[in-house]
TrEMBL record:
The chain crosses the membrane at residues 19-41, 47-69, 81-101, 167-189, 215-241, 247-268, 280-296, 302-325, 337-360, 366-386. It comes from Streptomyces orinoci. PANTHER family: MAJOR FACILITATOR SUPERFAMILY (MFS) PROFILE DOMAIN-CONTAINING PROTEIN (PTHR23542:SF1), PTHR23542. Keywords: Membrane, Transmembrane, Transmembrane helix. It comes from the Bacteria. This is MFS transporter. It holds the Pfam family MFS_1. InterPro entries: MFS (IPR011701), MFS_trans_sf (IPR036259).
Amino acid sequence: MAGGGGYVEMLKTRHAARLLTGTLVGRLPNATAALAIVLFVRAEGGSLGLASALSAVYGVANAVGQPLLGRAVDLYGQPRVMLPSATLAALGMTLFAVLGLDPLPAAYAAMIVSGFFTPPLEGGLRALWPSVLKDEGRIHAAYSLDAIAQEVMYVVGPLIITGLVGLWSPAAALGVISLLGVLGALAVVTTPPSRQWRSEPREAHWLGALRSPGLLVLLGAFFCIGCALGSIALAAVAYGGEHGGDAVAGYLLSALGVGALIGGSVYGARQWAGSPEQRLRVLVAGLALGYLPLLLVPGALWMTVLAGVAGVFLAPSLACAFVVVDRHALRGTVTEAFSWLVTSFGVGASIGTALAGPAVEQGGVPAGFGVAVGGGAAALLVLVLGRRVLTAPATRSEVVARSENDRNAAVEPGFSSGHQA
């Protein structure tokens, strides 16, 4: 696979473009929630502290709900879980928009409902790719394009919110985004692959996907990467305060996204030698090294360039992690496993933001970016220390499960994401 042909070939596969587009649209409420909640609360006369608290409640509820809903998808299928949960999430956000901040307990309850019932569309899409694409080259391209699309969504999403606020109001923005979330989920679950997909039979156990040692190593590593990204977001705002205002902070974060787009495009345009576990360590090492120059905090122009460089290895690391998760997810737990990755990443970002604030106050802007450097180094350390776990021979039951799912006998076997029923 060379150039962009792999992406084109993948998107030409029946249902692929619709699944990817529907998933991205369905994830807009989650991608834009933090900004939308803050704008709405401020418009209602609430403080920034209240806006942060409501946003945090939404985020915590989302972190709890994703793996639980992912487990439900593995047990009961995608349509029976994702469409009802998307509807409940939209109703929660709409209730918040209608009631506002009075009574305040109702606002918090609405945030809990909306966050908890956000459907696990990310994990669901990655579980579908092997059964839809079947060819390993196309699956590789799909995971890479998925990682790239995430970056696009987190750049475009805030623009959509601010545009809706400008045209109508913050309340209307919440309503429109919630409706789009339901329509995106509907577009996914009405496709034949989503209706027909069934997870492999699973062993009943309360830990579910967390029984996989390899998955635990990945979750630890991507928690640390989430910490790094969360700290960069806050450190960029602090840097902007000293070098030209919020616009400069926006330039840095946009450059980070552009770097990720470039890196993901290059990574997905070809096949790579070696196991994905080994390749992930190399990519995360590049990610950690890319954060180091941020400590120099030069002028705005060079800092923007450095931010772009820092983002180059992000999308490739995510794309490679998707493959590794699929290889290490226990039989019948793949959607839950992907949802745990989303949760660990998101929780890590929240922790990173919380750590960067005191760091900037105590040591200035370089200390804020130092949290990102520490997060990248910690992620690499987790992968190095967990190397034996990630490369350990599978148990007998896992071998059986993987051999059943290895349709291509390819270099990277073990896509365990289920089958067409």
